Amino acid sequence: MAMRELRYFGDPVLKSPTDPVTTFGASTRALVEDLLDTVAAPGRAGLAAPQIGVGVRAFSYDVAGERGYVLNPEIVETSEEREEIMEGCLSVPELSFPTERAVRATVKGVDLRNEPVTVSGSGLLAQCLQHEVDHLDGLLYLDRLTPQRRKQALRAARSTDWFWSR
């Protein structure tokens, strides 16, 4: 379909919890195609619907040859083991900060036929699953930073050319 324009930190859609997908027709199919097309650009691992201005529970992913989407995803399992990893976000470009994430994660949701889908992964895929579900809950990775790092991140974001409120 189309590569969609991204929304950036400061846009209210990124801080609003999303609504569940309730219809599975042409408009939802078009949204999924747009999510898949938009995440396919080099350097991208995941993309949540709010990042393209749509407030529904949907995301796409493209990590190490695993590519797909999940509608109405919920994290159903994470490992107790955590690690601090450098994390960035398409909606907070040019910045990355150490963020604590579970090493393994599992998401359950549905596909375009409203059939159950389960995606599990470790490493980058686990990070991506957690990151994208956070977006659907109205959270950015910046919200998970330590207070000192969050202050540093917000200062850095405000000094960028893309920050919307400048």
Report strand %.
25-35%
Q: Please tell me the CATH architecture of the domain at 12-78 and 103-139 by its name.
A: Alpha-Beta Complex
Main beta-sheet annotation = 5 strands, antiparallel
- Tell me the quaternary state: single chain
The CATH topology name of the domain at 12-78 and 103-139 reads Peptide Deformylase
Beginning-to-end CA distance, first to last residue: 32 Å
Low-pLDDT parts are none
- Going by CATH, the homologous superfamily of the domain at 12-78 and 103-139 would be Peptide deformylase
Structural class per helix/strand content? alpha+beta
What is the share of helical residues? 10-25%
- Helix/strand order: HEEEEEEEHH
At the first level of CATH, the class of the domain at 12-78 and 103-139 is Alpha Beta
Number of separate strands: 7
What is the average of the pLDDT values?
A: 94
Give me the Rg, rounded. 15 Å
Contiguous helical run count: 3
Top keywords for this entry?
3 helices; Peptide Deformylase; Peptide_deformylase_sf; Peptide_deformylase; peptide deformylase activity; single chain; 166 residues; 23% helix; EC 3.5.1.88; alpha+beta
Task: Write up what this structure looks like.
The chain is an alpha+beta fold. It has a domain of 104 residues: Peptide Deformylase. It is 23% helix and 33% strand. The protein contains three helices and seven strands, in the order H-E-E-E-E-E-E-E-H-H. Strands 1-2-3-6-7 form a five-stranded antiparallel sheet. Strand 2 and strand 3 form a beta hairpin. The longest helix is centred in the first third of the chain and has 14 residues. It is globular, with a radius of gyration of 15 Å. The mean pLDDT is 94. One of its GO terms (molecular function) is metal ion binding. It holds the Pfam family Pep_deformylase.
